[in-house]
Amino acid sequence: MVIRNIIYQVLQQAEDILGARKRLQPQTDIVVILGGTSTLFGQRLCQLLVHKFKTTLVNVDRHDDPSLHNGGPYYFFQCDFSKRESVNGALKSLKRKGLRYTVLINNLNEYMDSAEGNDTFQYCTSVFNAHLINVMIFTRTFVTQLVRPVDDIYIINVTRYQDTKIGGPKYATYHQLAQAGLIQYHDGLSSELQLKEINNGNDYKSLLVHIPMDNNRREEEYACQVLEMLQEGRKGVQYIGANSFGIIMPYYWINCVRDFYTLCRSE
């Protein structure tokens, strides 16, 4: 009995490491991705979800990828995240669709070109609207209006800092500041969603993923690593890199331990 209690305590600590039991279940989850086809990484992620895993995917972005319509269940809602009215329209479309959304991935981190001309203030406003302010609005509405109280929910924010060589230091700085703001928002959101007054009974798990700037363009490799992390049910902050295998294996064993702990707890 003493040994059983010790094992129980150890397994409970493993449960605390992973938090909520939510993991990405490609065959049953309905995934909403913001900015799914604006970056090469996002395209690879969407292609893997749709073509390899046959996951039901809802992509909210400025541009669509026609190849995604030839795989699993896929829906596209056009949205310019730099414009509030466009975001509101996309949210209404998702609500009308009435699907049972369980995973939200924010991949709005692409470098916006300087189409606004030389108006620095306007450009800065567009970047912060697209990468931070409207992401906050979308996430809040997703949590309060688009998910069902009985479901476990997974929220993932993907961030990457832009190279100052792209577009020059001035424009890259705006992106870096917006991404820094997103990190702070994610931290606050993770804490807030643990409050019963906010989560409406849902069991939330949140994950912040840092993608490196890589001239070798290993985007598909990074997308595979992110999907592995989501299937393992990681939470907190994770850094993607070419040598993530050493981090993945411990999580595999922790998941095994967690499942055993759940079994013990149910007896």
From TrEMBL:
InterPro entries: NAD(P)-bd_dom_sf (IPR036291). It comes from the Eukaryota. This is Srl4 protein.
